Amino acid sequence: MQKIRPPAVAGQFYPAEAQALQQTLQDLLQQAKHDGPAPPAKAIIVPHAGYIYSGPIAARAYAQLKPLRNIVRRIVLLGPAHRISFTGLACSSANSFQTPLGDIPLDRATIDKLTALPQIHMRDEAHRLEHSLEVQLPFLQEVLHEFSLIPLVVGDASAEEVAEVLELLWGGPETLIIISTDLSHYHDYSTAQLMDHKTSKDIEQLNYQHLSTDSACGRNPLRGLLLIAQQRQLKIETLDLRNSGDTAGSQDAVVGYGAWVLHETRAA
């Protein structure tokens, strides 16, 4: 019997009606600045707030995937745990994740093999209400053709533990890695800008050791990506860096958002 993880934040973080959602995505992607041809993306780093807040920033990264529409066939998606605390990385027992745009099949065979790693645990409760992964799915359904999904919620895990998982899942051009993270939380506008610019510099320089829980809520999955980016000599580019005070919120207490793309510079 097919087990489906239904959407938890449709109607809150993004429109619950398929036509309205698709129109929102198309508008965001059309407005996203694109600098023309670039090397194929191997990984992107994107925010995960409601679309009115972080959607324009996330769209900058997803616009990079348009040339990969018929190439990428597998998404490795990691984001932080907001609802429960646990050690390691949580996978799902579902066969598919559902959004208003349809069902996305999980790469069940690969996920089942991952559970042989000591840091990987089957924790459906970590996925049930988690938004950090869910809000990425409609973007992917809009920009890609057909793909399978390996969704992992990251709890208390080291950079090395996350990097080991990413190394096993690296694959070739058919595999894209996505890290979901917001930046600073609930500082005034100018303080947030200073903090987020520093975080962005650390990300650009792959300084995973410098990232703290204050700098990025998705610090743990992000640190793992930056570590393997060092090892594999990936090139990283900042696409956007703003906060909720720039998009749809007050400037008194803002949340920071950034978008980055990573390219391979040598043969895998």
Report on this model:
The protein has 268 residues and is α/β, with parallel strands linked by helices. The chain has a single domain, classed as LigB-like (Protocatechuate 4,5-dioxygenase, Chain B). 35% of the residues lie in helices and 24% in strands. The strands form two sheets. Strands 2, 3, 4, 7, 8, 9, 10, 11 and 12 form a nine-stranded mixed beta sheet that branches. The chain has a three-stranded mixed beta sheet with strand order 1-5-6. Strand 5 and strand 6 form a beta hairpin. The relative contact order is 0.20. The mean pLDDT is 96.
Portion in helices: 25-40%
Number of domains: 1
The helix-strand sequence is: EHEHEEEEHEHHHEHEEHHEHE
Give the strand content. Answer: 15-25%
Task: Give the mean pLDDT.
Answer: 96
Structural class comes to alpha/beta
How is the biggest beta sheet arranged?
9 strands, mixed
CATH-defined architecture: 3-Layer(aba) Sandwich
- Gap between N and C termini, in Å? 38 Å
Number of helices: 10
Report the radius of gyration as a whole number of Å.
Answer: 17 Å
CATH hierarchy, class: Alpha Beta
Low-confidence region ranges: none
CATH fold assignment: Protocatechuate 4,5-dioxygenase, Chain B
Shape: globular
- What oligomeric assembly is this protein in? single chain
Q: What's the total count of β strands?
A: 12
